[in-house]
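queue> holo job accepted (zinc ion)
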Amino acid sequence: MSTTVYTNAKLFDGKNNTVTTDAWFVVENETGKLTEVGSNQAPTDSQQIVDLKGQYVMPGLINCHTHITMDPQSGDGGLGTDEIELTVRAVDNLHDLLASGVTYIRECGSAFDIDIRLNELRKEGKIDHTPEIMTSGRPYSMTGGHGDLGHFAHLVDSPDEMRKAVRTGLKKGTQSVKVMATGGVMTPGDFMTDPQLSVEEMQTAVIEAHHKGRIIAAHAEGNPGIMNAIKAGVDSIEHGFYVTDEEADLMIEQGTYLTPTFVADWAIPEYGRGSMPDWEIKKAADALDDLYANIMQAWKRGVKVTLGTDAGTPFNDFTMTPVELELMVQQGATPFEAMQTSSQNAATLMGIQDEYGTLEAGKFADFLVLDSNPLEDIKAVQQKDKAVYKKGVRMY
Ligand SMILES: [Zn+2]
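queue> job finished
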């Protein structure tokens, strides 16, 4: 077995709130896994030695909420009906994600089930320089609900229709089911406070996903839809902008994760001025103050938070994952707490924590190399020319 030893690093392993100086780690080249992590006295028996020259090493980011077939510059997701165009776009978006430091994603809704096919091609080695993908395929919505486009969502209107549709998705290769519990911002005539899929419909999806050992996420921005999704037993609430104390307590009891997607709302007033109507900008800016307060309250109460960006929504491109970390810190999380959302918490939600999320022996060598210390200043992760390693291979 050939190995590579990386020496002279300042290591943040994703697990402990500290940077180890003079750290080293050994990667088995065939598997891309870490075999040893230590400090001082690096082993000298490796064929290859990489001197990291005192730079900072941290785990690759896991982004739990992306839409790789969407176009952030289009204003409405750009989900036209040209499958070839969307496929080419999805590959570009995957490249941007990896270059920005994201080594694993959980998709949350892909037109034409494109993520499933791309993931097969990725595993066959036919596309590269992408993060690993936990696929969702098309999400599940109701007739007239959020994302109501035939090639984007499965439209279901009863528990029986849900059962059939989810089984069909799982057969095709869905690894994480996505259901729409409320309306949202991007579909005309549908609002955050609209409850959509019923508790019974979502419960059916939860049962089918869990029978297959898969996870399930619910798009839930307002009430009463957030409560409906929690009652149905989903594994994560996506957005959760108007989460209440009562809902937070139930989530803590059930172990339900919350993915705030701050950057999706932040990007609209930040970049939309001039190209979007003023009332729409104002609506997003007003909502932002509320959602920051509600989510930080739930977080402080003890809800487990995961990082997701909703990449693909207006002005929210595929390089923004490190900005989500910055927004979390701006709102009161410590850099360590923020980084746990994209390392341990994300890996645990996705059930991949034995091999991903932190830099420890036995896990994959998915890591970033930075010039400055992310535990001191979270903006360190935004470095444009950072090095990104996937399974021990430098990708960017
Ligand atoms: Zn989304």
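queue> DSSP finds eleven helices and 18 strands in the chain.
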